[in-house]
Amino acid sequence: MPTEAELREAMALAGEGRIAEAVDRLHDAPESGNARLVVLFADMLASLGRAEEAEIALRRGIGAGADPAILRFALGRLALQAGRSSEAKALFAEVGAPEKSGDFAGVLDIARAWETAKESAAAEAWYRRAVLLAPDHLGALFGLGRLLSELGRQAESIAYLGRAHDLAPGSGAIAQQLAGDLTRLGRPSEALAVGEAAARHVGDDAGDLFVLGLLFLNHAKIDRVLELWWRVLASDQGRADYGLAVVDALAATDLGERSEAVTTRLEALLGDRPEVLARIASIMLYACDWRDYDAISRRLDAVLPRLTVAGDIVSRILWVLSARGFSYQAIAGASGRIGRGYRQAAVPPPRPPRPAGRRLRVGFLLIGTWFHSTMQAIRNLLRHFDRGRIELYGYSRHEKEVGEEGAAFRRGLRAAFDHFRDLSAIPAEPTARLVDEDDLDILVDCTGLNELNALDVLARRPARITAVYYGFSQTVGADYVDYILADGDYMPPRLAAFNTEHLVRLPGCHMAPLLGDFPEGAITRRQVDLPDEAFVFCNFNNPWKIEPVCFSLWMRLLQRVPGSVLWLCHWYDFSTERLKASAASQGVDPARLIFAPTTRHDVHLARLGVADLSLNNFTVGGGATAHDTLWAGVPMLSTEDAAAAPSARLGATMLRAAGLPELVMPTVEAFERRAFELATSHRDELATLRARLGEARRRPAPLFDIAGAARHLEDAFVAMIARFDAGLAPADIDIAPRWTAATQRKERP
Question: 643, 685, 642, 651: which is closest to 539 by C-alpha?
């Protein structure tokens, strides 16, 4: 049993972050009979990745006579973290009823753990017992009030939150929770009064100041918000802890005439941090705010060498670089500095040979199973796979709530696999172990360096071969990925040279067809607020892809083609308003920009057909949106070398795969000239192009040949594993075309 001196020394070491040394001092803690000490010891072990030893310590503590309720609950938490939910619930059930316990600290710990375990009824019972034992305890009152609020019982929650607010009037978290519940009850003036009272008592704690700012933000009191948040950013610690959160919150706020001053001040306070500059640049992209465009690009270029931490910036910086026309060499370098952050210190042992005669086992790591273009494309592909040849495993890394329509899509996606596992609530290490137990031959990651990603699993190499495909078709920049699957048009040799992965070149366009059904009945222009006689240019891409050069070209076309309109998608209020203002500043009536609301995929496909010509973006071309446009039969113009990066070549890849190479323009100038011709003197040619797209759907052309795309992906998997079976290292691979139409022609007599 540790002495008082050893305990004090251990706590001091833990406070300095020297956990391993603290564990050494407490090695006899399980025999102390002190449940709190045993839990502390187990938590330290778990933080060092020694979860099995932590469980042993807790069981030793129970054997030594320490409070079994507390220790069993600690065991339950460990079981939850390891993904053993049924075992955790069984342990929780052994804890017993709250009314039997008089240990306030233990009761409050158990209440919080039940809340973490999403067992609301049990959490409420234990919180109520804690309040009964200590009626004026801040943590118990706030915990119960917060839980009742989450359960939608605001009329009950405000009683406990009000008492907590009286005890700690300067607490931002308590004030925000109480004010939120009062607002939901239709009492906004009382909610603001809570905020004002908290503002009078709040100290210099950055967390309280930040959360209190969110309270006022919910009531559109922008001056109050800025007053509090400038205080947050006044200290080095405040900038470090809350700088990114302040930037992100203000990004989604209509700042009106304050916008320029706020952005300038944020840059002055935070712009020397690469991840903050990336966010500021991202905010400006999404808002179509092109102020200081070149200057910000130069600053981004200067901070790129300091991007080193995985998870801080992830895809945001990479998409910003692509949208601003950075070279693939620069993008690949940034990818590597981020991707390598997920690398594991321990190199996994070599994989054993594949069992002879077994079907090829291929797993797909997905962001989640809600409706998304990547998940839709993967589902379409898998339905055409030869199950006698390949056994399919699916893994979901993140999930979110979906409605009834989303639930139907989720069921269909999961059913496309032979085996599917939802691993969204499980940490990376146990997730990798579960994947490893499936003994996969190939694990394909469909997330890449997106903000929601699965690289923490992929980096542990839980399969014989690892590859990236579709969701982020650019290099991860790390040695734990063997292959990237893309087409040679999108990723030519001069760009592929910057990949750390070997390239598997797929025929046609590597993006599998989204396809999609059209609802019955035609949609007219009047139904989508378009003028009947106008020439309709369209672009439904997210506004972050609209660069100023591209938009200026569109405005010149509207000026040169009388009566024409530009049909865009309304993604965000702030970007729509700024685009209208930009049109007006360039001499174009903002009414000629018509914004369509987002809608169901089938309805979107049906309405697309009323457009005349799609104008693709330059530096980051449309992906799913471009695919949908061509599938709907609308010709699209695209460039291919507006930037020296794959993202600028995707539209060209699609057009060639659709059999329309003449719509790929060599320069921006040629793009503008061709668009003007098709909208004026070459209308007959535009009609012919439209007819050819319709024929391309029926044939189908390679862009729409989902069965052929599935065959190519199967062949790629077979070629990759053949090298492994032969004891050869990964290498570039070319996949021969096996399109459906070509196969049919060969079989005809």
Answer: 651
Question: How far is it, in rounded angstroms, from Cα 701 to Cα 688?
Answer: 16
**Per-residue pLDDT tens for 244-293?**
889 878 876 777 677 778 877 887 888 667 777 777 788 788 889 888 88
Whether residue 665 is found in the same domain as residue 691: yes
Looking at 640-682, list the stretches that DSSP marks H as alpha helix, in order from N- to C-terminal side.
650-657, 668-679
Could you tell me the CA-to-CA distances from 355 to 228, 351, 359 in Å, in that order? 63, 12, 9
Band the pLDDT of 96: cuts 50, 70, 90. low
Element (H, E) at 36: helix 35-47
CA distance 12 to 223: 43
Q: Give 522's DSSP letter.
A: P
**Number of domains, the chain:** 3
The CA distance from 637 to 617, in Å, is 9
Residues 110 and 137: beta-carbon distance below 8 Å: no
Cβ-based neighbours of 479, under 8 Å, separated by 6 or more? 343, 500
Residue 437 CB: number of other CB atoms within 10 A? 9
Which of 506, 534, 559 represents a domain boundary (last residue)?
A: 506
User: Does 337 share its domain with 368?
Assistant: no
447-458 burial: b if 16+ Cβ within 10 Å, else e: bbbbeebbbbbb
Q: What does DSSP assign to residue 748?
A: -
677-698: pLDDT as tens digits: 999 999 999 999 999 999 998 8
Which phi and psi angles does 583 have, rounded to 5°?
-60, -45
Look at residue 63 and tell me if it is in a domain.
no
Handedness of CA 665, 668, 674, 678 (dihedral sign): positive
Residues 406 and 547 in one domain: no
Q: List the Cα angle 341/345/351 in 5-degree steps.
A: 110
Q: Judge whether 531 lies within some domain.
A: yes
Final residue belonging to a domain, choices 506, 538, 557: 506
Task: Please check whether residue 742 lies inside any domain of the structure.
Answer: no
688, 623: one domain: yes
CA distance 461 to 347: 9
744 is a domain residue: no
CATH code of the domain in which 593 resides: 3.40.50.2000
For residue 366, the enclosing domain spans 360-506
For 358, phi and psi rounded to 5 degrees?
A: -80, 150
Strands 565-570 and 536-539: parallel
548 shares its domain with 643: yes
- State pLDDT tens for residues 693-742: 999 988 899 999 999 999 999 999 999 999 999 999 999 999 999 999 64
What radius of gyration do the chain's Cα atoms show? 29
Q: 290, 550 in Cβ contact below 8 A?
A: no
HSE-up of residue 372 (Cα within 13 Å, Cβ side): 15
- Which residues make beta-bridge pairs with 391? 361
Based on the fold, state whether residues 397 and 336 are members of the same structural domain.
no
For residues 536 and 684, membership in a common domain is answered with yes
Q: At 370, is the secondary structure helix, strand, or coil?
A: coil
Q: Which residues of 302-313 are buried (b: 16+ CB within 10 A; e: fewer)?
A: ebbeebeebebb
Q: Copy the structure tokens of residue 458.
A: 């992929």
From CA 163, how far away is CA 145, in angstroms rounded? 10
